């Protein structure tokens, strides 16, 4: 049995499959980003929420946000192996490699993630050959749910959006400025808190001011995460995964066209592609 995980900063999807890719069981838990959780915290979540479905597991393959550095990979790997018994060594990779394998399988292309966070890479069909620095939501992550909603909240608190939107925001969330700022500056996982307002932004996406937030963020995303790969890469197919890319796809495709880019595919969740990759394209257990 193969246990595959796809983890963002908000949630982690787990799927237990047999060698042919048939789903035996699945479960979802909170995001397991090692920048926001300790090894012990990750292990506790997995033990409580994942081990009930993780019987007779031969191998765990984990793709996660925050798993780009070896020290973070080891942190997650150690947490998993402390609570799940496996026959073969656990494999831990960054979420962007997971996105590339899911969307492109063994084909060349550019893969982008737009969910709670943002990322991109150039993939040669086997491995990542180019990847702009992933600097997080404070320094980058334009177009992500965190940064989109950071910009939204800023305009709301500054009273710079339409009064109807501001009134709807306070009626919907019943939070004053002090409470919002406390969540952002004094509580853990401010990125998840900010991204949680994404449905509200989507609700008002037909408003010109909200559209400006969305389109400006997507322009900055292409400027930082795609254009630096150079003209030699612009002929490669470009695909997206993530909740933001999926739910705001019309705006994403509109902005892409401004750059002369045609998006090949937009997939909300990469799990089905990962199962196909590990069970059909490059079988993990043979």
Structure summary:
InterPro entries: ATPase_NBD (IPR043129), Euk-type_GlcNAc_Kinase (IPR052519). 44% of the residues lie in helices and 19% in strands. The protein is an alpha/beta fold and 286 residues long.
Give the secondary structure arrangement, pairings included:
Layout: E1 2-7, E2 11-17, E3 23-30, H1 39-49, E4 59-64, H2 70-81, E5 91-94, H3 95-104, E6 109-114, E7 118-123, E8 128-130, H4 136-139, H5 145-157, H6 163-173, H7 177-185, H8 190-195, H9 198-203, H10 208-225, E9 238-241, H11 243-247, H12 249-258, E10 263-267, H13 271-281
Parallel strand pairs: 1-4, 4-5, 6-9, 9-10
Antiparallel strand pairs: 1-2, 2-3, 6-7, 7-8
């Amino acid at each position: 049995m193969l246990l595959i995980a796809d983890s963002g900063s908000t949630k982690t999807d787990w799927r237990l499959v047999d060698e042919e890719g048939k789903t035996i069981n699945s479960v979802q838990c909170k995001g397991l980003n090692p920048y926001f959780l300790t090894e012990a915290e990750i292990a506790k979540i997995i033990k409580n929420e994942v081990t009930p479905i993780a019987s007779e597991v031969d191998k765990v393959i984990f793709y996660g946000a925050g798993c780009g550095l070896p020290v973070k990979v080891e942190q997650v790997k150690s947490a998993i192996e402390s609570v799940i018994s496996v026959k073969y060594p656990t494999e831990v990779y960054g979420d962007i490699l997971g996105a590339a394998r899911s969307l492109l399988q063994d084909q060349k292309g550019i893969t982008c993630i737009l969910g709670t966070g943002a990322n991109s890479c150039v993939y040669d069909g086997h491995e990542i050959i180019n990847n702009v620095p992933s600097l997080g939501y404070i320094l980058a992550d334009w177009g992500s749910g965190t940064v989109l909603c950071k910009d939204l909240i800023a305009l709301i608190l500054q009273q710079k959006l339409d009064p109807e939107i501001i009134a709807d925001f306070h009626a919907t969330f019943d939070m004053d400025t002090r409470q919002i700022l406390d969540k952002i500056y004094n509580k853990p996982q401010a990125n998840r808190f900010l991204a949680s307002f994404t449905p509200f932004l989507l609700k008002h996406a037909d408003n010109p001011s909200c559209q400006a937030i969305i389109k400006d963020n997507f322009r900055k995303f292409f400027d930082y995460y795609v254009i630096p790969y150079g003209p030699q890469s612009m002929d490669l197919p470009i695909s997206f995964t993530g909740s933001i890319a999926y739910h705001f796809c019309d705006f994403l495709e509109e902005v892409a066209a401004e750059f002369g880019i045609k998006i090949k595919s937009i997939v909300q969740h990469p799990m089905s592609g990962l199962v196909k990759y590990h069970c059909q394209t490059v079988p993990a257990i043979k």
